[in-house]
Every structure is written in C-alpha cells, then in structure tokens.
Amino acid sequence: MSIANISPLVRMADKLALHAPISVEDRVSLLELPYASRFFEAGSYLLRDGDTRDQCGMLVSGFAYRHKINVEGLRQIVSIHIPGEVYDLQQLHLATADTNVQALTRCEIATIPHEALRRLAAERPSVAHALTVTTIVELSMSREWMLGIGRRDARTRLAHLLCEFAFRLDKHGLPPGQAYELPMTQEQLADTLGLTAVHVNRVLKGLVNDGLIVHNRRGVTIPDWAVLVAQGGFNSRYLHMNPPDAIVRPPDHA
C-alpha cells in the first residue's frame, strides 16, 4: 500500500496544491512528515489564545473555527477551517497564539512537529513557497470577511458566506450541485457575520422562501448557483485557487 493511501497528510498536500505548484517529489516529502493523530469532540479547544506550541495541527476530518473574544466576553468568529487545512500555520513563525480555535464538529487532527516542517521547508523551496502562499491566502480571506462585515447588508453577507463554503468544499471533492454540510448554529453564524441570531434566522428564512437555498439541519443546497452568486456579490478571486482563478508561480532561483 502506498503512503498516499495510508497518510492523512495527503489532504494537506492537496490543499497546498490548490494555491501553489506541488511536484510529485514535494508531495512524497510532505506525506513522509512525522505526525500524530487524535480525535476531538465538538466544542473542544484545539488552540487557545496565549498558547505556545511546537507543532502544527491539520484537520483530517471535521470542521473548526477561529475566534477572538473582547473584554466584554463577546465572540467574533474570524475564520472557518475545513479538512486539509493547517489551522495554526502562523505558529511556525509566531511564538504565541493570538486567537482561539475550537472544533465545530467532531474532528480528527494530525499534528506535525514544527521542527520537521521547518526542515522540509528549508530543503524544498517550493514547499516553503506553498506554505507562504497558503498563509497569504488566509490574509486575503480575512480582508474579504472584513469587507463583508463592514460594507455588505445582512442578506448579501450571508449569501456570500454560503457561496464561499460551497466553493471551498467543491474544490475538496464535493460533487457540483450536491448538498454540503453546514454544521453551524444560528448563533455561530451570527458571531461570524456580526449579526444577532434572530437576524440570521430571518435572513435564512428569506433566502429559503425566495428559492435561493434549501436549508435543513443536514446542510445547504443551492438550486441555482448563478443566482446566489449574484445575490452575494461573490467573486472567488480572493481564494486564489489553482486552477482556474489564479496562477501562482514559485519564485525564480538563479
């Protein structure tokens, strides 16, 4: 049996390849990284503000969310993480975590020692480039979310978020036109969108009543992708996925 069939790190290699060129040799090296797997129940903290770590965590399965809490104890969810994503890649370069990461659903996490990942990045510049690009794409997504909270109305804000989830999950193997899992409560959606749970409930019902989405406890189906894209003003460019949205080239080495 090949390492690609037994290592959960294949998801990480696939994720990196969405944003930057990954050779066969790069992929093999990534899959040979040491790791340890562990399951976490929904609500468990994967990372806490103020933590110092010597390893990165990658979602093998399940969903997680990153959030910050203000002095009054109010929560703002600043990103959602899906399988294949390393949710604390910045800790390769920053000693102390400045956000919390919690399991949104039951998750399997593969942890990779910082030392091994840094060594691989030093040995393989293309892997280092892919890790850097992935971190930059996270910043791009943060800017888009900031725009949404600051300048989109509630209906457009939610439609845009639903389009983003569908697009990201489609790139991870979801058949086009199929329902996708949205394991978020209305309170969690509210903390993501900067709204109240009551407002989210009203907007969700409006999108359902207008036929833009089908929503139930199991997830979301989008009957007409083009219509929801127009409603949310969604343009996938900020996700910088290859192909077809952007061609990310490695730096030239003289």
From TrEMBL:
Gene Ontology MF annotations: DNA binding; DNA-binding transcription factor activity
Signal peptide: none
Source taxon at top rank: Bacteria
Residue ranges of domain HTH crp-type in the record: 152-226
GO cellular component, one term: cytosol
InterPro entries: cNMP-bd_dom (IPR000595), cNMP-bd_dom_sf (IPR018490), Env_Response_Regulators (IPR050397), HTH_CRP (IPR012318), RmlC-like_jellyroll (IPR014710), WH-like_DNA-bd_sf (IPR036388), WH_DNA-bd_sf (IPR036390)
CDD domains documented for this protein: CAP_ED
Pfam families hit by this protein: cNMP_binding (PF00027), HTH_Crp_2 (PF13545)
Protein name as catalogued: CRP-like cAMP-binding protein
Lineage of the organism: Bacteria, Pseudomonadati, Pseudomonadota, Alphaproteobacteria, Sphingomonadales
